């Protein structure tokens, strides 16, 4: 499945994160992402690119970047396989997943690292940076809706750099979205991203559910760690899996129920989560989820799109 790979053998000793960035024929956005990490990271990082196809010159460009590790597949294998394959190249204790259509703000990595240090020897956590993006999104408590351009061509970089830290926000509960970071031992314990969700729709809440089942309760979004996100540049070009149905069939509840009642995603952070009380609202949601699950099982729902 991997046609070519390279591990950076000249990393500095104080490297902090292994940042895995899957990329699918998205060279200009990838360059923008990598350059923002080079310019705006306070610490050194192990940057790993998984190149899907690379027909737009991505493979040639990444080969020329001596500070990057990479793996390459001649076919588009999606996000889940890409992350799991790139895992073999990491050289730190912390695996951070980032999209190639993101732009890191100055010192984005300091708040994440401080949160990790505060955990001490506890590795049962899942932290996310905070996305800022132009479009509307139902999870408004998580994503700061600020328009600095809907495409790379329209990106007002200077204005973003002047204003990114002026949008008030506090840490939030329910870390799911990239950029997210987890200890490699936790990643390995749950088996990384579930490939049945390939090419990747709903693989994020599925990963969080696997962490929940393992006993992780520290799902924290870090308000002061910010990236700009151009929103689904790759997924708009790809035929996606029926992720919402797959999640329901696998876990017996909808992803919406999980992120709202268990992760409490988007609510102000108040500490580690606890198992929710099964009040009337949650009982109704779980019951309706069971009915939907039976329905989709009868009609072969996992094949639906």
Commentary on this structure:
With 305 residues, the protein is an alpha/beta fold. It has one domain: Spore Coat Polysaccharide Biosynthesis Protein SpsA, Chain A (Alpha-Beta Complex). It is 34% helix and 20% strand.
Please render the helix and strand layout as text:
Elements (H helix, E strand, L loop, with lengths): L3 E3 L10 E8 L2 H14 L5 E7 L5 H7 L3 E6 L4 H9 L7 E4 L4 E3 L4 H10 L6 E9 L10 E2 L11 H7 L8 E2 L6 E4 H7 L12 H12 L3 E12 L13 H9 L3 H8 L17 H20 L6
> So what's the oligomer here?
single chain
Largest sheet: 11 strands, mixed
Q: Name the shape in a single word.
A: globular
The top level CATH class name: Alpha Beta
CATH homologous superfamily? Answer: Spore Coat Polysaccharide Biosynthesis Protein SpsA, Chain A
SSE string, helices as H and strands as E: EEHEHEHEEHEEHEEHHEHHH
Class per helix and strand makeup? alpha/beta
Summarize model confidence as the mean pLDDT: 92
Count of individual beta strands:
11
CATH-defined topology: Spore Coat Polysaccharide Biosynthesis Protein SpsA, Chain A
CATH architecture: Alpha-Beta Complex
The value of Rg in angstroms is 19 Å
Low-confidence blocks of residues: 301-305
Strand content: 15-25%
- Roughly what percent helix? 25-40%
